[in-house]
Design brief:
By secondary structure, the protein is an alpha/beta fold. The protein is built from 21 helices and 13 strands. Helix 12 crosses helix 13 and helix 19 runs antiparallel to helix 20. The chain binds arginine.
Length: 581
């Protein structure tokens, strides 16, 4: 952790105290003095259980040891005298002076707001979204898209070199049905009007027919074989399908403000599969089994009886084969130090297998599987439309914007100056998309969360509208004042609400890097929620425009700092802010 943050500063002072204490010569090799934000902020800003842990190991009285350390610790220029609590916790209060200086520094650092860059910048390829062509991009893909985009933004902000890659499924068995449908049931006018919808209709129609008609299923398989064999007609239909699908997807990504550096879909790896498998056989990593080619993990407890199939007995390649070629490309060509996969939890086994196979090949890059749970309907079952179909992402986003528009109209029914239609549309877009994203990001990714419009669009509670509204409040102070923030001022930390707000603001720098340990954007979301609450308490108790002189200047600076942290924090989640709502 960066040495300028409060926990690291306190850790160093604490360590120095132990080094001067009666246990100095007994400190174990691996002794450390971790300092955490206090669990109960009534008793401190930060706390450490280091004395308790050590006392247990050395069979000493924990409270006595903590008391000795508190007597020895030098907190000059950083914190007020430490206190012992409960069975031997050491509690710290940061001094008002250090809080003020930290917020002043944050205000002077508009680009980073005090967040230290990563010690070791890495090249990180992030594989997310990755929907399948001619199949609907459903709300399950939304989790991957939103979480992946947020992780990409945060990793970039921390100074990593991030490459986002949309590994779309553009070469699956679904093309057998799509090709058959195209040749027999294509509605040209419908294709013209909404190509993605027509492809999906074809796929569903043929899929339905094939269930009861084996000959038809066979015909689909033949179409697929022809495509894979390079048949010119099928290839040209396939190319068109992929093109129109990409255009349809692009519309959704534009709406979501999600960008990819690459779209290296499955088909990109086609000509790399045969040589890859040959190489794996030659090096003894893969072997024949019943006519198929497999990689066995006999030495690996979990995977001992779960070999990865990489070539079928009919010569066909599989999802795993493509993923192994993908790893090779990302490591060798894109020079990745790390590859992150944001993919639903049901694919755990697949990734366990390909990571284990990559390890056998000598890949040393860090490969991380970042799974997530499901989205449930209000009935706690998998989210479905009323007619029982999978819910499509494009429809969800359109509905979000429409509903957000209503919320804004209701909220502003009593205003004398109504927003223009364009303004309302723009704010509705920001709030609607923001709400869907925030509902996702404020949950731990493994949580199966319930998709509920009323909850996610509520103006109160842990929601995007609440956070964006908090930002709007900070801006309206400057609007009412008739003047923006003039520049860095001296911060005065006097009232308890000023103190809490200054501490929260300073902690932005601690939270952002933590998101990447175990990939939890929800830490940042919940931090922003707490910041907004802390700001509201400050705003209710500490008049800003009615105060004067240095006090007013300081309070305006606290408002400005809150404004910047909220905006940047939401931006790192991929959520835009509105200036008014
Ligand atoms: N297209 C896949 C799906 O929708 C996800 C691909 C994830 N990425 C990967 N490299 N396998 O399930």
């Amino acid at each position: 952790m960066n040495s300028s943050l409060f926990p690291s500063l306190l850790e160093a002072r604490l360590r120095a105290a132990f080094d001067r204490s009666s246990v100095a010569s007994d400190l174990p090799e691996d002794f450390s003095t971790p300092v955490m934000p206090a669990a109960d902020t009534r008793f401190g800003d930060y706390q450490s259980n280091a004395a308790m842990v050590l006392a247990k190991r050395l069979k000493r009285n924990p409270r006595e040891l903590a008391t000795e350390i508190v007597g020895l610790i030098d907190l000059e220029g950083l914190a007020k005298p430490a206190e012992v609590a409960g069975p031997g916790f050491i509690n710290f209060w940061i001094s008002e002076k250090s809080l003020a200086t930290t917020v002043e520094t944050l205000l002077g650092d508009d680009a980073r707001l005090g967040v230290p860059p990563a010690d070791e910048p890495h090249t990180i390829v992030i594989d997310f979204s990755a929907p399948n062509v001619a199949k609907p991009m459903h709300v399950g893909h939304i989790r991957s898209t939103i979480i992946g985009d947020s992780l990409a933004r945060i990793a970039r902000f921390l100074g990593h070199s991030v490459i986002t890659d949309n590994h779309i499924g553009d070469w699956g068995t679904q093309f057998g049905m799509v090709l058959y449908g195209w040749k027999n049931f294509l509605d040209e006018a419908a294709l013209e009007a909404d190509p993605v919808k027509e492809l999906l209709r074809l796929y569903r129609h043929v899929n339905g027919l094939a269930k009861a008609d084996e000959a038809l299923l066979d015909a689909c398989k033949q179409e697929l074989v022809k495509l894979q064999g390079g048949d010119a007609e099928n290839l040209s239909i396939w190319t068109r399908c992929v093109e129109v699908s990409k255009q349809g997807l692009q519309r959704i990504y534009d709406l979501l403000d999600v960008k990819f550096d690459h779209w290296l879909g499955e088909s990109f790896y086609n000509d790399k599969l045969a040589p890859l498998v040959d190489g794996l056989i030659a090096s003894g990593i893969a072997e024949e089994s019943d006519g198929a080619i497999c990689i066995f993990f006999r030495e690996d407890g979990r995977l001992a009886d779960k070999p990865a199939l990489i070539r079928k007995s009919d010569g066909g390649f599989l999802y795993a084969t493509t993923d192994l070629a993908t790893i090779e490309y990302r490591v060798n060509e894109l020079k990745a130090d790390e590859v992150w996969y944001v993919v639903g939890a049901p694919q755990q086994l697949h990734f366990d297998q390909i990571f284990a196979a990559a390890q056998k090949q000598g890949v040393t890059a860090t490969l991380a599987f970042i799974p997530f749970g499901s989205i449930l309907g209000k009935d706690k079952k998998m989210l479905r439309t009323r007619s029982g179909d999978t819910v499509q992402l494009a429809d969800v986003l359109d509905e979000a914007i429409e509903r957000a528009g209503k919320v804004i109209e209701e909220k502003n029914a009593e205003r004398d100056t109504a927003f223009s239609a364009e303004e309302t549309a723009e704010i509705a877009r920001i709030i609607g998309i923001g709400s869907v994203k925030y509902a996702e990001l404020s949950q731990h990714r493994m949580t199966d969360y319930i998709f509920d419009w009323d909850t996610m669009l509520a103006l109160k509670g842990n929601t995007a509208p609440y956070l964006i509204n908090a930002y709007v409040r900070t801006r309206s102070i400057f609007r009412k004042r008739g003047e923006g923030f003039g520049g860095a001022e001296r911060i005065l930390v006097e009232a308890p609400q000023e103190r809490s707000l200054a501490l929260k603001l300073a902690q932005f720098a601690e939270i952002v890097p933590q998101v990447l340990s175990d990939f939890r954007p929800n830490l940042l979301a919940n931090y922003l929620y707490e910041l907004a609450n802390t700001f509201h308490a400050f705003y209710e108790n500490c008049p800003v425009l009615k105060s004067e002189g240095d006090v007013q200047a300081s309070r305006l600076a606290l408002c400005e700092a809150t404004s910047r942290v909220l905006r940047k924090g939401l931006e790192l989640l991929g959520i835009q802010v509105a200036e008014q709502m």
